Amino acid sequence: MELSIHLFILLPVLGFLISLLIPAKKEELISKVAFTTVGLSLLSSMVFIGLWLVKGLPDLNIRDFSLYKSINYDFFIDFYFDKVSAVYLLVGAVLTFLVTVYSRYYLHRESGYKRFFNTILFFYTGYNITVLAGNFETLFIGWEILGISSFLLIAFYRQRYLPVKNAIKVFTIYRIGDVGILLAMWMSHHLWHENITFQKLANYELVHHYLQAHSSIGIFISLMILIAAAAKSAQLPFSAWLPRAMEGPTPSSAIFYGSLSVHIGAFLLLRTFPFWEHQLLIRWLIAGVGLLTALAASLIARVQSTVKSQIAYASAAQIGIIFMEIAAGWDILALVHFAGNAFLRTYQLLISPSVVTYLIREQFYNYTPRKQTIESAFGKRLRYALYLLSIKEWHLDSVIFTFFFSPLKKIRRAINFLTLRNVLFFFVPLYVLGLSFAYTQQHLSQEIKDVLAPVVAFLALLMVAKAYNERSSSRLAWLLIVLAHFFVDLSISFNDEFNLKEAAVYLSGVVISGIVGYICLHEVKAFEHHGIGLNQFHGLIRRYRSIAFVFLLCCLGLAGFPITTTFFGEDIILTHIHENQVLLAFLVALTFIINGIAVIRIYARVFLGANSRSFLTQSDLTA
Question: Per-domain residue ranges for the chain?
């Protein structure tokens, strides 16, 4: 029975690969492949859960295979199935099936018809990996797939400025949440001295034994999990991204931001509940975040001018209540609430285009005076204050900008010295010199190594910050991102005995992605006969579709997406940071996150958005 779990991963993967091979003009065949894939997955999940219920709801754990193994480290794939997985798996299969059927006709003759179904199957693969994951490493694979799927679906109308801009914003918030997952994984390695499985995490005696001696570490891990969950589920202070995600087609809004993807944060809390259930501070904090989100999102929803934004904030408010239920230990109620909210929001979003028409008609022919509401009992000043705050969405966008983007932008002038010439003639020799010291550490005292490690990591952070702020040269930004990975490796080499084999595993994916990506940018520059700056969206994807696809893969490789060895290489990097080196861990994790944002920004600025030319050739129009 345990081996049947693989079917829920293999079916979407197989459907995704088949859909890639079908010509874009064959709409009926594309939709049939997606429809059949998700339908078989739904049928399989119903049969599997039925057998699981008959056998008495046993917790199933499958340790699959190791992607990389060394003396002190083992990155292995693990799957886990319990009541939480069962509910999420079944709800996900039903809703994806319904949305797939709906989309067959809703997107008829849409230019991105094939791309939409490719992305839906890709998303469904990531969703199943996430809800069936048996450890943090496997969960992070699905987590990353959900993130890039979100970006692709929000930017579905990729010739328009606003969808692309909002896609980058949402992806940025997702990457901020990834800091929480990365740091939770880092500290978990030091707490358990292994890649702990969720089955072991459910062992109260084991968890209690470790947390008694390391209570501060337990609080740190729990806080990181909360940050990741709040960012993914649009809880305060990350709620503002949810209505921005509605720029994609209505079916993708329904499946992502009304039902499945937006509830993954709640899933993470349910999955890790045995770890933090006896940490009273964390439980109160989760309940507080949920309560504040429920109140703020409810007020914001009441003043939204678009129906999709109203539904988005209403969904965030309900997820806030789900957070409170999880914190209270009412896991069954939380699961029922998740299923109900997911089905309701999917239905509301799918009919939202029709709702607008109905409301316009009602306004003309059946006017009714406004009913008394709870706000009517408030004083005028309080009502007006709440209204203005809600209209401005409680300045949630400003909070993220002030504490994350503003510091990055403020250092733009300070890092202007990172020109192409200085990088080649100063930082590359500096790296070579540092490498020679790192692998002859007998000449360095421990005090010097403790200082050098964060200093080198800070240089890597400066490079990705410069890449994020770069305006004139896309190739310079790309080279800085590649070089930043090498400096991260160097910082760990000073910190610990990071052997050449592990360095090769981490950097091999960086080198391949970096070289191929640079070639792509060089080819585009050669075809366009001018430099490709990052001060605007060039919209070149129609002219260079193949190059754009290859470059996107290179971007994902540099961002640590699970298509190259860099993915688990980043996890290896974190295991070499000691538990008392919080500054170093934070610098490295932040470098990884800004690195991901910077590469997606390069891709979006070069290939997405409206075409910068004032005319299109015949080849553009037929692409």
Answer: 2-359, 411-622
